[in-house]
Write a structure and sequence with these properties.
Length: 330
């Protein structure tokens, strides 16, 4: 049976005033991960951002390990893991443990990061982030091998080793020539956030120059995150502010030198809906998209921007009952 490209997105945006409500949202996210795993989702993905006003998940590895403990089949990903904020040996250890707990179901996109405040709170120099990312990635690959290696003048061998060989799967993210060159030099797949043909060509040229093999993965041009509801017009009126909560926060990190997917151009629910980066669609429309395009990747985002939990569950259940079950039955 062909795998259905279904993804549960859990980025935990939307700050509740009551800490008990926030705790319930996190525990609900784990319940949803377990539900998605039982009902045939292929992927469960989390993200990483720090000191976000709307509580964007800052601890993706802890969340991924909790998801691993509650699931058995779905792949677990961090999209993206800001590796330039981490100590490389500790990161290698933590990822190895998650890889073991999940029996090889964990993967990530290695992101550089672009928000200066995140480097400030991590005590890492923002202007040296590219050099530090090189150091982190090189150390990860050495740490996951079976060989001793020199780390800052001392010979070490990092344990435990992951079960995935030669190492837990990951891609190098970015949308610049240095990012593409970094991926090629290390023989790692490259993941720009959108199709960028000239950069892809450059990446393959660099692979050839370094004598390495790799590939490029990027989302389709019409990628959007989805919320499933039987009446989209009514749902936009009732729930649109939750989508706006997340989009506004993301867009507030605007960089003059970096164009990012999902960055909204307007500042209203109507404008956000028109841009179609977030979509509310019926189960029938979602089913039709799956059947029309075998490569369609449905990213279901039930907890977007502090979504009420009962509506979030309804979204997830509709996708499971009226989309996944129909696809499984042909």
């Amino acid at each position: 049976m062909t795998e259905i490209n279904s993804n549960l997105r859990l980025n935990m945006t939307g700050v509740e005033a009551d800490p008990r409500a926030r705790s319930l949202r996190y525990r609900t996210a784990l319940d949803m991960a377990e539900f998605a795993d039982r009902h045939g989702f292929a992927h469960i993905n989390v993200e990483e951002h720090h000191v976000a006003r709307n509580g964007w998940l800052p601890s993706p590895l802890i969340m991924a390990s909790a998801i691993a403990a509650r699931t058995e089949r779905a792949n677990i990903g961090v999209m993206a893991l800001l590796v330039s904020l981490y100590d490389p040996v500790r990161l290698a250890e933590d990822i190895a443990v998650i890889d073991l707990l999940s029996q090889g179901r964990f993967s990530f996109i290695a992101g550089l990061g672009y928000r200066e405040v995140e480097f400030h709170i991590a005590n890492k120099p923002y202007t040296e982030r590219g050099k530090w990312m090189d150091h982190v990635l090189e150390t990860l690959l050495q740490a996951w091998s079976d060989q001793d290696f020199d780390y800052r003048g001392t010979t070490i061998n990092v344990t435990p080793k992951p079960c995935s060989r030669p190492h837990p799967p990951f891609l190098v993210g970015g949308m610049s020539k240095p990012a593409a060159r970094r991926a090629a030099r290390l023989g790692l797949p490259f993941a720009p956030p959108a199709a960028m043909p000239e950069l892809e060509t450059y990446y393959h040229e660099q692979l050839k120059a370094y004598g390495k093999q790799g590939y490029v993965y990027s989302p389709p041009a019409d990628f959007s995150v989805l919320f499933i509801d039987e009446n989209p017009d009514r749902a936009w009126k009732e729930l649109g502010d939750h989508f706006l909560n997340e989009a506004r926060e993301y867009s507030s990190w605007h960089s003059d030198t970096l164009e990012r997917p999902l960055e909204m151009q307007g500042d209203t629910v109507a404008a956000l809906r028109a841009e179609k980066r977030y979509e509310i669609i019926t189960p029938a429309e979602c089913l039709q998209r799956h059947r029309a395009r075998p490569d369609f990747f449905a990213t279901i985002h039930p907890l977007v921007g502090g979504m009420p939990l009962e509506r979030a569950w309804r979204c997830l259940e509709l996708y499971s009952d009226k989309v996944l079950s129909q696809l499984a039955n042909g």
